[in-house]
Amino acid sequence: MNFINSLKHQLKTLVIGYRFMQVVQAPYGAFIQIGKYADALMDEHGMQLMIRSLARTPQGKQALAERRYLGAVDLDALLQLPSDTLGHLYAAHMKRNGLLPPPVREPAPNDYIYLFNYVSETHDIWHIVTGSDTTKAGELQVETFSLAQFYPSRFWVALLAKNFLKIALYEIELCEELMAAVVRGWIMGRRAKSLFGIPWQELWEMPIDQIRAELNINPFLSTEIEATLAQSNLDTSISFTSETASNASSSSLTPALRIGS
Q1: SS3 category, 251
Q2: Residues 134 and 97 sit within 8 Å (Cβ to Cβ)
Q3: Rounded Cα gap, residues 72 and 99, in angstroms
Q4: CA quadruple 137, 151, 197, 104: dihedral sign
Q5: For a surface tag, which of 141, 210, 217, 252 has the fewest beta carbons within 10 Å of its beta carbon?
Q6: What's the pTM?
Q7: pLDDT digits (tens, 9 = 90+) for 174-200
């Protein structure tokens, strides 16, 4: 039995690794590959941990019991709302990025499908609420915010791992910008009230500033933290002259201490 369980574990690990590399090589927003990656990662224990976490609020508990969705979304009608409302900002965001509103869905047969659909249809609303654009940094900020909100979640951790590998392989020059987005998204997500289960379709006409205030969401952190995130190590790096290097080599410090200094 132990041999069979070990074999199953190794096979699952291989499948996850294969799906991981597929999604690393795919462009950002490749939902088919992301869906297959999520399928490979999901397990009963991880699902139950996340369900218990999401059900800690009355709205989350009700959403899981009813498995409710947004329903029909009319972007043209939402565009007619005042420019500072959630509905107008969401519709403008969708139009600007060439996105269609989420489909009207049938009731989900289980929690896993419901959660995947829920994340898919509210993702762009969370962009608006968190003040995150659709650049790579903006997407990473929303993903990290989502990890903080859906914690603990194997999927969001693994999605961030995928993006970190993308940075290492293809976008190392964006490292500072993307890591700042990770920090901002995590802190913002931990400070905010739980967004899961909020009936967004009832808030279209509400000003975005009021929504953020009620949910304790501030797209900008404290002045000190924002200044630190904006500071570039490349701009303040020390240029060592040959004389400095020579002095370092003749120092009485041990090599380990010189490296750490």
Answers
A1: coil
A2: yes
A3: 15
A4: positive
A5: 252
A6: 0.79
A7: 999 999 999 999 999 999 999 999 999
